[in-house]
Amino acid sequence: MSAQPLDSSEHRSGALLDHLARRMRLRSESVLAPLGLRPRHLVALTVLRAGGGTGQQALATILEMDSTNIVGLLNDLEAKQLIERRRSPEDRRRHVVELTEDGAKRLSEAECALASAEDEVLGALDPAERETLYKLLSRASTGTAVNCTEAICVADDTC
Amino acid sequence: MSAQPLDSSEHRSGALLDHLARRMRLRSESVLAPLGLRPRHLVALTVLRAGGGTGQQALATILEMDSTNIVGLLNDLEAKQLIERRRSPEDRRRHVVELTEDGAKRLSEAECALASAEDEVLGALDPAERETLYKLLSRASTGTAVNCTEAICVADDTC
DNA sequence: AGGGATCGTTCGTGAAGCACCAACTATTTA
DNA sequence: TAAATAGTTGGTGCTTCACGAACGATCCCT
């Protein structure tokens, strides 16, 4: 699928993506530590916010992680009461994972805390460009557009 | 520097960046293996192509890696004759690192080989959007625009 | 009711990436 | 000459991660 041949000018984003993600992650770690979160957790929470109510096998597919490793990740998050696992009524084998209120709040806090990190890494881009970047990344990461009705960053003082 | 306060709508790209980079990296590894390269090598080569002729300490700063680990990375690349270390005439302590012809060629090959991976990961974006993404990432990663006079993918059959 | 498949879970193992420290050489600079 | 800098080497330990094996619970099909 998607055998669309690109034009002659080949601009591969892979390495750049990797590079920027690394730089972002390095800064994120120190900022996120006081919140008890790690970059991976952030990714998971973000995905959950975007497409909540997924079983954790589906989550494993989205995050492209081994399902056994998903368990540990979710254990962390559940211990902190940022997510909830509920058994699906339709299929009681299934654990439906959802963000709790605390989780959404913590995610917003984390995003606020990351503002300075992002300013550093994306310093060369103006706000409009960052918004464009966000939209592109968002579309790419979910395959479908993520409706932006969340994350108003109501949280605390740091913002 | 860059204490520009963002507007009210908070869209943090960090997690998405991480997510996409991971997906890309997973696919890249298998594709790159036959070329004897790893994603990290690709990143280094890409940075070198963009801002060649840097000392390796500067490289460490750009890549935000420990300089001791840079050495190993460059050793790999030099052993494959993809880069050259030359002593700077001005400061003979310094090793100026530059892409060799082989290196540029190999990089192009690698980028071609990554086309399918990128198609998968960025499948939701059309070519114009990918180009936009590339430009944004490129600007962000170097701080300044990268002149796009390279990587015409002259290489081989796979492209 | 029985049998096979599926979801989540736990445990363990091994490889890889990476930060960090310490020591050394060659070279520049004060 | 002494101190600082660029690169190199070697080692140590932490963390992440993929992968395998086994298990209970549950669904689905016959």
Name some characteristics of this structure.
homodimer, 159 residues, mainly alpha, Arc Repressor Mutant, subunit A, 3-stranded antiparallel sheet, 7 helices, 3 strands, 55% helix, disordered C terminus, DNA-binding
Proportion in β-strands of chain A: 5-15%
Helix content of chain A: 55-70%
Q: Which structural class do you get from the secondary structure elements of chain A?
A: mainly alpha
Main sheet properties of chain A: 3 strands, antiparallel
| CATH superfamily label of chain A | Winged helix-like DNA-binding domain superfamily/Winged helix DNA-binding domain
Can you identify the CATH class of chain A? Mainly Alpha
What assembly state would you assign to the polypeptide chains in this entry? homodimer
CATH architecture of chain A: Orthogonal Bundle
* CATH structural fold name of chain A: Arc Repressor Mutant, subunit A
Distance between the termini of chain A: 43 Å
**Spatial strand order of the main sheet of chain A:** 1-3-2
* The number of domains of chain A: 1
List the chains of the largest interface with their residue counts.
Answer: A-B, 71 and 71 residues
Mean pLDDT of chain A: 79
Weakly predicted, low-confidence segments of chain A: 1-9, 144-159
- Radius of gyration of chain A from the CA trace? 17 Å
**How many DSSP helices of chain A?**
7
Order of helices and strands of chain A: HHEHHEEHHH
Description:
2 copies of one chain form a homodimer. Chain A is mostly helical and 159 residues long. Chain A has one domain: Winged helix-like DNA-binding domain superfamily/Winged helix DNA-binding domain (Arc Repressor Mutant, subunit A, Orthogonal Bundle), CATH 1.10.10.10. Chain A has 7 helices and 3 strands; from the N terminus they run ααβααββααα. Chain A has helices spanning 14-32, 39-50, 56-63, 67-79, 101-113, 115-121, 127-142; strands at 54-55, 83-87, 95-99. In chain A, strands 1-3-2 form a 3-stranded antiparallel beta sheet. In chain A, strand 2 and strand 3 form a beta hairpin. In chain A, helix 2 packs across helix 5. The termini of chain A are far apart. Mean pLDDT of chain A is 79; it is low at 1-9 and 144-159. The structure holds a DNA duplex (30 and 30 nucleotides).
